[in-house]
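WARN  no MSA supplied for this record, continuing single-sequence
INFO  ligand: coenzyme A
INFO  echoing inputs
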Amino acid sequence: MSKTPHDLCQAVQGTILSTPSLDLRWLTLADAPALQAICESKQVAAMSGSIAHPYPEGKAEKFIREYAPKIEEGDAFVFGIFERSSGDLIGDTMLGINKRFISGEFGYIIAEEHWGKGYATETLGAVLAFGFDTIGLRRISGTCSVHNDASARVMETNGMVRDGHTKDSYLKWGVWEDEYHYGLTRPEYELRKAQRAVV
Ligand SMILES: CC(C)(COP(=O)(O)OP(=O)(O)OC[C@H]1O[C@@H](n2cnc3c(N)ncnc32)[C@H](O)[C@@H]1OP(=O)(O)O)[C@@H](O)C(=O)NCCC(=O)NCCS
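INFO  complex generated
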């Protein structure tokens, strides 16, 4: 992170991250209805620590509005996940930035009807490349409920290492949930990239 956060934000404004099946681009207010529909799914909310169910009307629009200044300040990057074949919004992903420690923490959701197509795995690969190669982060982390086998698998497939377990991390629908913590450092990411290049 040799550039200032402001410079970086200007440099990456409008960035589109591409994977084999997806384009990840900045969310706009026009995306709010589709995002609202994704977040209204009880199955999506069930494994998320932050999505309420029922999901309040207008919440997706509020989320997009509230994150605009954070993106502007370089405190977070929020991408809509678009299926290239249909052009549909099928999820979103956020990379929150800790400027002091040059680290990032991501989250993601994929619409229930698109689960199991490899989209979260592709998304995380693109977010890791963005965080390490474009922004120059030192470390990227993520968490998931200990019951979220799909999310744990997505992180492990992308080379992330489970490095923690927090008991009673958050209260979900009246039940205290434990969380697994996953992390990847820049040297680990670089090593993995080099190893994959020679295979
Ligand atoms: C977690 C989530 C993002 C995964 O999205 P996805 O696009 O279906 O994930 P992918 O298809 O890329 O990969 C899922 C992997 O988990 C595996 N998986 C799925 N369900 C599983 C289960 N119940 N047990 C074990 N593995 C499972 C799949 O087989 C696949 O592994 P593979 O690549 O080895 O075949 C999606 O389920 C989701 O949005 N859930 C609700 C919100 C959420 O949990 N967000 C993350 C919070 S940490």
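Residues 44, 47-48, 107-110, 115-121, 144, 148-151, 153-154, 157 surround coenzyme A (CB under 6 Å).
INFO  checksum written, moving to next record
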